[in-house]
Amino acid sequence: DFIYSLENDVKPALGSSDEVLEKFIERGIINWGATKELLEKGMMFVKQARSPETSNRLCLLIEGAPTAGTSALAAYLSKNSDFPFTKVINSREMVGFTEASKCLKINRLFDDAYRSELSCIFMNDLEQLMGYSPIGPRYQSLVLDAMYSLLSSSPPKGRKLMVICTSKRRSVLEELGLLSVFTAVIRVPFIARVEDVQMVLEESGAMSSDEIDAVVRHLSHGRIFVGVKKLLGLLDTMRVMKGVDSRKRVAAFTNLLEDEGIFVPEL
Amino acid sequence: DFIYSLENDVKPALGSSDEVLEKFIERGIINWGATKELLEKGMMFVKQARSPETSNRLCLLIEGAPTAGTSALAAYLSKNSDFPFTKVINSREMVGFTEASKCLKINRLFDDAYRSELSCIFMNDLEQLMGYSPIGPRYQSLVLDAMYSLLSSSPPKGRKLMVICTSKRRSVLEELGLLSVFTAVIRVPFIARVEDVQMVLEESGAMSSDEIDAVVRHLSHGRIFVGVKKLLGLLDTMRVMKGVDSRKRVAAFTNLLEDEGIFVPEL
Amino acid sequence: DFIYSLENDVKPALGSSDEVLEKFIERGIINWGATKELLEKGMMFVKQARSPETSNRLCLLIEGAPTAGTSALAAYLSKNSDFPFTKVINSREMVGFTEASKCLKINRLFDDAYRSELSCIFMNDLEQLMGYSPIGPRYQSLVLDAMYSLLSSSPPKGRKLMVICTSKRRSVLEELGLLSVFTAVIRVPFIARVEDVQMVLEESGAMSSDEIDAVVRHLSHGRIFVGVKKLLGLLDTMRVMKGVDSRKRVAAFTNLLEDEGIFVPEL
Amino acid sequence: DFIYSLENDVKPALGSSDEVLEKFIERGIINWGATKELLEKGMMFVKQARSPETSNRLCLLIEGAPTAGTSALAAYLSKNSDFPFTKVINSREMVGFTEASKCLKINRLFDDAYRSELSCIFMNDLEQLMGYSPIGPRYQSLVLDAMYSLLSSSPPKGRKLMVICTSKRRSVLEELGLLSVFTAVIRVPFIARVEDVQMVLEESGAMSSDEIDAVVRHLSHGRIFVGVKKLLGLLDTMRVMKGVDSRKRVAAFTNLLEDEGIFVPEL
Amino acid sequence: DFIYSLENDVKPALGSSDEVLEKFIERGIINWGATKELLEKGMMFVKQARSPETSNRLCLLIEGAPTAGTSALAAYLSKNSDFPFTKVINSREMVGFTEASKCLKINRLFDDAYRSELSCIFMNDLEQLMGYSPIGPRYQSLVLDAMYSLLSSSPPKGRKLMVICTSKRRSVLEELGLLSVFTAVIRVPFIARVEDVQMVLEESGAMSSDEIDAVVRHLSHGRIFVGVKKLLGLLDTMRVMKGVDSRKRVAAFTNLLEDEGIFVPEL
Amino acid sequence: DFIYSLENDVKPALGSSDEVLEKFIERGIINWGATKELLEKGMMFVKQARSPETSNRLCLLIEGAPTAGTSALAAYLSKNSDFPFTKVINSREMVGFTEASKCLKINRLFDDAYRSELSCIFMNDLEQLMGYSPIGPRYQSLVLDAMYSLLSSSPPKGRKLMVICTSKRRSVLEELGLLSVFTAVIRVPFIARVEDVQMVLEESGAMSSDEIDAVVRHLSHGRIFVGVKKLLGLLDTMRVMKGVDSRKRVAAFTNLLEDEGIFVPEL
Ligand SMILES: Nc1ncnc2c1ncn2[C@@H]1O[C@H](COP(=O)(O)OP(=O)(O)OP(=O)(O)O)[C@@H](O)[C@H]1O
Ligand SMILES: Nc1ncnc2c1ncn2[C@@H]1O[C@H](COP(=O)(O)OP(=O)(O)OP(=O)(O)O)[C@@H](O)[C@H]1O
Ligand SMILES: Nc1ncnc2c1ncn2[C@@H]1O[C@H](COP(=O)(O)OP(=O)(O)OP(=O)(O)O)[C@@H](O)[C@H]1O
Ligand SMILES: Nc1ncnc2c1ncn2[C@@H]1O[C@H](COP(=O)(O)OP(=O)(O)OP(=O)(O)O)[C@@H](O)[C@H]1O
Ligand SMILES: Nc1ncnc2c1ncn2[C@@H]1O[C@H](COP(=O)(O)OP(=O)(O)OP(=O)(O)O)[C@@H](O)[C@H]1O
Ligand SMILES: Nc1ncnc2c1ncn2[C@@H]1O[C@H](COP(=O)(O)OP(=O)(O)OP(=O)(O)O)[C@@H](O)[C@H]1O
Ligand SMILES: [Mg+2]
Ligand SMILES: [Mg+2]
Ligand SMILES: [Mg+2]
Ligand SMILES: [Mg+2]
Ligand SMILES: [Mg+2]
Ligand SMILES: [Mg+2]
Q1: Do B177 and A91 touch (CB under 8 A)?
Q2: Do residues F91 and F172 share a domain?
Q3: Are residues C18 and C96 in the same domain?
Q4: Chains A and C lie in contact, requiring 3 or more CB pairs less than 8 Å apart
Q5: What DSSP designation does D138 have?
Q6: Which of C20, C106, E129, F77 has its CA 20 to 30 A from that of F126?
Q7: Which helix (H) or strand (E) holds A113?
Q8: Confidence check: pLDDT of C155 > 70
Q9: How does residue A13 score in pLDDT terms, banded at 50, 70 and 90?
Q10: ipTM, interface predicted TM-score of the complex
C-alpha cells in the first residue's frame, strides 16, 4: 500500500518548494518492509526540530547506497514537515558555478531561512554539492567549508532551523569531519526479502498478479539485493513489453534481474 | 548486408542534427555478427524512452574499446529515434573552452531539450568531454559535476528526455559515480570470428571475392581480434594498392593484420 | 550545579562580542567532574594575560574531541576575561571568502585589537578557519601563514593581547608548526564516569529523578564515553517524548546510548 | 647518396609553409640503410590520404628517440606531399601562450585547413606541444583535449585532411589515449651498422675518405648506436679542426664517439 | 649577567629599524653558557661583512629549534652591526599578500639596500616567509625563487650587503637548495645544563634565590632540555603566583617542567 | 697564475653585457689544475659556433656542483667569445615575474639575438630560471616549454646563435628532456688535490707563503674536496683575522676546513 501517492498533492504555501520536492518522489512511496519505520523515525526528528524545548538547530542525514530511495524519503520528510519556509538546494541550478558563487547562493538561502521562525532546508546528495569525486579524490574546499560553517552554527535566537540532507557516501562525510554536525543519521537499506519485492511489483502495476506470483516463486530460490529505485526502473521495461506472452515477460524480467546482478540463484 | 548505408539519407526535420550524426557513420553499418542484436536492444530502449508510461528520463550508454564502432551505433540509434528534437554535444565545437563555458554550453542544450516534448541528446566519448586523461589522472571536475546533475535530474513534468552517450572507459565512469545514472549500458564487442571478418571484407568492396577467400583461409589458422573501424581503416590501404597482383595484395593485407597485432597465427 | 547559566547574562560593554559568545554556551556550563579544574586553570591564564609583569602576548588553546565542549568553555573564558576589547572570529561570516579576503578580515581585527590596551580575540575551530580538511589533506596556506604571523608576533609596546582558540585536531596544528605559538594548551576530556553522566542528566531537567536513577543503574554495568554536547543533544529526544511511560523513556534513552556507541555494556 | 639536398629547393605555392619545413631538413636527407624504406612507406600514406576512395582523415605519426631524424623525415613527407594547403604548427611561435590561446591558434589552423580540398598539417614534437614533461608528470590538459578532438574528428564532406606528427615519447601518447587516433605509426631507428655510419660520413663531406676508412676500421671492433642528427652534429667538431693532422682528427673523432657513449668497443 | 638589557636602548639612526628589532629581544639577552661564544662568532661575521677586502655579499643564517632564542640573537647582531642601513623583512606586514606582491616588497627592499654603501637586512623565520608548511609540503615557489635570486646575487660594485636570517628548519632550506647561498651558519642550542637554568632563573627575577636553589636541587636528579624562550615563558606563570607559599611555587614550577616534557627525572 | 684578472677589463662594445658578466668573475680565474683544459675545450666550441660551416645553433652547458665555479667559467667564455651581440638572462631582473612575463622577456631576448649575425646568450642556473625546486618537485612548465622551444629551434638563415648555460642539477635537465638540446656539456670538477689548494691560496693573497706551507703540510695527511668559490670564501675569514699570530691563523683555517667537512684527515 502506498504511503504517499502523486495524486493527493496539494499546492504549497508561500515560500515552499513543493514542486521541486515532488520531482524526487516521481513514483510515490511504496510501503515495503523498512519504509514505515524509517518514516516514523524521520517524523520524530521533524517533531523534535519544531519543539521549542530543544536545540534550535537540527540536521538530519538520510543516507544509503545509490538507488536505495534516499532522495524520495528525504523529500517526503521535508514536504511533510509543513514548515512555513521550505527550500531545496538544487545542484541542477548551479551547473558551472564557481565555488564562490555556489557558496554565495547557499549562504543566501540560509540567511533567508533565518528570517523565518521555522525553516527547513533540503539538500540532496551532499557530497555531490561539494563536487566530491573519488578520483583524486577531489572536492570543492570552499563549499565544504561553507557547509561546515552553515550546518554547525545555530540560527539567531528565537529561530528554529531543520536541515535534511541525503548522501551516497557516508564514509566520505565522516572523513571530511561533516558527520559530527548531524544530530541524527538514518540509513536506508536495500530490498533483500522476496516479500518486499512482491509488494513493490504489486504496487507498481507493471505486471499482472499471475506474473508476480511466477516471479516470486522464481526468486525464492536465491538471494535478492536491490534498491527500490532500480527495481522500479526495471519494471519500466515491462511496461513497453505489453502485448507479449506472460511466460516470456516473466522470463525476460527474471533474466534482467540476474544480468544486473540483483538476483543470485542458489547453486 | 548493410543495415544502414550512406545513400539512403534523408534531410532532417527542424532542430535535429542529422548531418553531424551522419559523420559518425562514415561507412554505413555493416551487419556483422553482433550488430543486429545490439541495434534491436538499443531500439527497444528508444521505444521505452518514448513511452508515456515510463520514467521521463532515460540515459543509455554505448560502450566499447577504441575502434569497436560505438560512436557509429550510438549515432545510428539517435538518428533513428526520430525524436523531434535531437542534438549532438560535440567536443570539436568546444576546443579551448574553459570548464565554465563548457558547462554553460551543455547546460543550455539541456534547457533547450526541456522545451521539446520528446528530445534526444547525443554525447560522444563522455569521458573525453570531461577532459579525462589517465596521466594524473585528470578530468574537469566542473564538467563532471554538470554531467552528473544534468544526467541524473528529471526533465520538467510532461517532457521526456533520452540521452545516448558513448564511452571507451566504462570503469572510469563507474569510479566517478556516473554509471549509476544510466538506465542501461550496451557493450559493443570486437570482431573475433573469421565469418565476421569475411562479411566486413565483402561489404567494404575493397577486395575481390578471390582475395577475400584467400584472406579467410589464412585467418582460419589463428586468432583474430579487431574493432570494425580499425578493420575498415586497414582496407583503405588496399584501395590505394589497386593495380597490384592479387597474391601480393592478400599477403600485404595479412601481414598488416599481423604487424598490428590483430591476427595471431597458431604456433 | 551550574557554573554559568543563560539567565544571568548582562549586556556587554562597547566593542565586545558577548552575544556571539553566548551562542556557544547555549545550554550553560554544567559543573561535571573535570569542568571546575579546567575553568580555574583557564582563568589563571586570563589573569596572567592581564598582568603587567608578563609577556604582552598570550595564546591559549582549548582542545578536545568533537562534542567535548571546547567551544563553550573557551567562549566562557573569553566572556569572563572582562577585557575591554573582545572580538570573535567567526567562520560563518566568511563563507565563500577567498583566502586573501579572509586574511584581510582577520588581520584587520588584530590591528583593531592592538589599539586597545587589553584585548581578547576568540577563534573557534582554528583548523577549520584555515580550511583544513583531511582528504588531500588540504588547507589554505595563506590563512595558515596569516595565523602564524598574527599569533606569533607581539602587540606594540604597552598593549596586551590574549588569543583564545579551540581545536578538534591538535595533532594537525602541531604538524603545521602552529602549536609552538601557544603559551599553553588545555585539553577538554570526554565524560567517562557514571557520576558525571548523572550530574548532566540532573542539570538538564529532561528526565525525572526516578528515570535518572534507572539510567544510572543501567550504566553502572559497562563503559561510558561521551562528549557533554552529544549527551545534551540526545536528551533533546527525551524532551519530545513527553507523554510516554517512564519505563519506555528509560529504555529508549539507554538504547540510544548503545546505538550511538556511547555506552558499551559489560559482557 | 642524398635523397634530398638543400640546393634543389623551389619556392612554395600559396599558403604552404615550405620555408619552415626546410629548416627541419638543415642537412638534407642522407640515404643511409633505413631511410629509403621509411620514405616509401610514408609516401604510400600520402598517396592514401589523397585518394578519393579512402577515409577523408589520415593521421600519420613519425616517432623515434631524440636525434633519430624524425623531424627531418616528417618535414620531408609534408613538403613532398604537394598538398595545396600545408601548414606547420610551431611551438616557437607559441612561447608563453596560455593553454587557451594555444588551443585557439591550433583550432584556427584546422579550420583554415578545412577550407582547402586537400590539406596537410605538420606538428613537430606532439608531446612538447602539449607541454608534456615527465617530472610530475605534467601536460596541458586543454591542449591535449584539443589535440584529441581535432585529430579524431573528420573534416567536412568533400575535404581531405592529412596530419603528420612527430614524437619522441610514443608511450606517453599511448597512455594519453592519443595513439588510437593515428591511422599509422612509422618508427625511425638509430644507426647501428658501420656501413650506415660510413655513408653518413661520406655524404657529410667533413672528413677525407682516408680518414673515414680509418674511422670505419676502428668502429668495426665494437657496437655503435647513434641518431643521424647526433652523428652529423659531432662532425661539426671535425669541420673546425681543419688544419690538424689526419691521425689526430681520426683519434679525436673516435674518442668523441666513445666519450658520448655512442661507440662501445669490444672487450 | 645580561649582555643586553632593554634599558640601554638608544633611538636608531635614519633608515634603521631598531624598534622592530627590539621587539625580538623582549627580555634582553641573558648570558647563559652558549650565548657569549655565539655572539662573538656572529660579530666576527659582522666585521667580515664590513671589511673592504672581502666579498661584498655576506649571508648569515642563525638556526635552531623553536624557542631556542634564534630570533633574539639574530636581531641583536643586526642591531649591533651598526650598519647605516638596516631593514627588517616582517611577515606580519605581509599578511594576505599574494606571492607576487610579497616578491615585489622584498625585491624593493633589496634595491633600497643597494643604494647604501653598507646595509644589513634581517629576515626572521626564512622558511615561514616562503610560506613553507610540512603538510603537502607547501611553499611559495615565486618567493623561494626571489629569495634565491636576491640572496645569491652580489650588490653593485662598491656596495656591501649583509643579510641575517633565522630558521627553524635548516634541513628544509638545504633541500630547497638555499643553504649554499649562506656564507656561514650558526646553530643555537637548547639549554641542557642545570647551571644554565640557574642563570636564567636568577636573571629573570621571577623567583627568590631560595626558590631557585630548591629548583636547582630538584633538577640535578634528571635531564633538562629547553629553549631559553620557553623557560622564560614558564616563569611568567610564577610572576602571577605572587602571594603563594614558596614551597608550593617551587613544586608548581618543577611540575610544570615535567608536564611540558622539559625535565625528565632519573628513574 | 691568473688567466683572467679583474684589472684588465675593457668596457664592452654596444649591445653586450660585459658588466653583468664580470660580476660573475668577482675574483678572477685562478689557473688551478682543471681550469686551463676546461677553458680550451670551451673556446673550441666558441670557435665552432662562429664557423660558417657548422650548424647555426650551438648550445653549451657548463655544469657542476654548487661552488664549483661554473658561473665564472661560463661568464668568462661568453665574455671572451667576442660576439657582437652578447646578452645575459638574469633571474635577479625577473624576481616576482609570472611565468608568462618571464617567457615574454626571454623570448624577446632571443628575437633580438636573431637580428644579429653572431650572437651569444648567457643563462646562469638554468634550472633556477625555470623555478625548479626539489620539494614537490616543482618547476614552471611554461618556462620549461619556452626554454625547450627556444634552445632547440634554429635561428633564421644566415644567423648564428650560441647559448651558454650553467646548471647545478644536470640530472634534472636530463629528466626534463632538456639535455638533448645541448650540443656539448662541460663538467666543472671540485678541487681534490693539495697542489690545487696551494695554487688558490697563493693567488688569493690572503695568507703568507709560510702560512700556506703550513696549511699544505697539514692537508697532505687526508682528503680534500671543495669548490673554488667555497675555498675563496673561507679565505675571506683570514682577511679579517689580520693582526693575529700566524700559528693561530693556520690553525683557525684548517679547523674551518674540517668543520665544513671539506678536509677529512686520515685516521
Ligand atoms: N519506499 C520507498 N522509498 C523510497 N522511494 C520509493 C519508495 N517507494 C517508491 N519509491 C520511488 O522510488 C524512487 C526512489 O528514487 P530516489 O531518487 O529516492 O532514489 P535514490 O536512492 O535517491 O537514487 P539515486 O542513487 O539516483 O540518488 C522514487 O521515484 C520514489 O518515488
Ligand atoms: N556494424 C557496425 N558497427 C559499427 N560501425 C560500423 C559497423 N559497420 C560499419 N561501421 C563503420 O565503422 C566505423 C566505426 O567507427 P566509430 O567511430 O563508430 O568507431 P569507434 O569505436 O567510435 O572508434 P573510436 O575509438 O575512434 O571512437 C564507422 O565508419 C561506421 O560507419
Ligand atoms: N561543563 C560543560 N562544558 C562544556 N559545555 C557544557 C558544559 N555543560 C554544558 N555545556 C553545554 O554543552 C554544549 C557544548 O557545546 P560546544 O559547542 O562547546 O561543544 P564542542 O566540543 O565545541 O562541539 P563541536 O564538536 O560541535 O565543536 C554547549 O551548549 C554548552 O552550553
Ligand atoms: N636519413 C636521414 N633522416 C633524417 N635526417 C637526416 C637524414 N640524413 C640527414 N639528415 C639530417 O639530420 C638532421 C636530423 O635532425 P632532426 O631534427 O630530424 O632530428 P630529430 O630526431 O627530430 O632530433 P630532435 O631529437 O632534436 O627532435 C637534419 O638536419 C637532417 O637534415
Ligand atoms: N641568551 C639568550 N639568547 C636568546 N634569547 C634570550 C637570551 N636571553 C634571554 N633571551 C630572551 O628570550 C627570548 C627568545 O625569544 P626568540 O623569539 O628569540 O626565540 P625563538 O627561538 O626565535 O622562538 P620562536 O620559536 O618563537 O621563533 C627573547 O625574549 C629574548 O629577549
Ligand atoms: N679557476 C676558476 N674557476 C672558476 N672560478 C674561479 C676560478 N678561479 C677563481 N674563481 C673565482 O671563484 C668564484 C667562482 O664563483 P662561481 O659563482 O662561478 O661559482 P658557482 O659554482 O657558480 O657557485 P654557485 O654554486 O654559487 O652558483 C668567482 O668569484 C671566480 O672569480
Ligand atoms: Mg538520490
Ligand atoms: Mg568513437
Ligand atoms: Mg566546537
Ligand atoms: Mg625533432
Ligand atoms: Mg623566532
Ligand atoms: Mg653559479
Answers
A1: no
A2: yes
A3: yes
A4: yes
A5: B
A6: E129
A7: helix A99-115
A8: yes
A9: very low
A10: 0.92
